[in-house]
């Protein structure tokens, strides 16, 4: 179900307002439909932010590129698997509790929405401030729209930054310029020293994995090629994988 007005290409203010309306309207509409955030152009100046919102919508993801030669193939590959499957969250993302009664367009606060992928909590954070302010914010994980427990390793997908270990009630700091976006994966820590984050080349790294957890072991079967990120003995490690590989951590 469409949850906003039409997408207007190449207009920075629309990228902000369209995102604002879509995210907050999902609070209601996601109870009975998958929110449709509308089409978009992959070569829009705000395309990365728009792409992330569509991935987190839980609904359809479709583009309207009028000039195929300008299509941002790198961006499209970032949000799809090699067989064309679109990467999406498990359920429509919702705003975090601390911004339910705030206005990220008119106030100097970041828009934060969260869901899960492969049961991993994931967060999309974006700066849609109307005045183009650079915003720094430290947000608490107990404001997530779902309950968390235990310890997590957090990974900033776009910056490629491994932030270390955070408690379920802890906090994470993010600083973004106008129309910048960050995606954070919270990978549950097993026995306090290991977890699998996912494929680094994808917007939601855990999505291309089939995971089996057995006592203190994690077995991951990959659905796509790329760089598998995992943490063992509190150290971030990387290994190249192909579709169908089985990795034990």
Provide keyphrases for this structure.
249 residues, alpha+beta, 6-stranded antiparallel beta sheet, 3-stranded antiparallel beta sheet, 3 helices, 34% strand
Q: How many strands, what sense, and barrel or not for the largest sheet?
A: 6 strands, antiparallel
Biggest β-sheet: strands ordered side by side in the sheet: 1-2-3-8-5-6
Counted by DSSP, the helix tally is 3
Structural class by SSE content: alpha+beta
Radius of gyration: 18 Å
Can you walk me through this structure?
By secondary structure, this protein is of the alpha+beta class. The protein has a domain at 12-78. The chain has three helices and 14 strands. Strands 1-2-3-8-5-6 form a six-stranded antiparallel β-sheet, with helices on one face. Strands 9-12-13 form a three-stranded antiparallel β-sheet, with no helix packed on it. It has a three-stranded antiparallel β-sheet with strand order 10-11-14, with no helix packed on it. A hairpin with a 2-residue loop joins strand 12 (226-232) and strand 13. The radius of gyration is 18 Å and the shape is globular. It starts with 11 loop residues before the first helix and ends with a strand.
Secondary structure elements and pairings:
Elements: H1 12-29, H2 47-57, H3 73-78, E1 94-95, E2 111-117, E3 120-126, E4 135-140, E5 151-156, E6 161-167, E7 171-176, E8 181-188, E9 194-199, E10 209-214, E11 217-222, E12 226-232, E13 235-241, E14 246-248
Antiparallel strand pairs: 1-2, 2-3, 3-8, 4-7, 5-6, 5-8, 9-12, 10-11, 11-14, 12-13
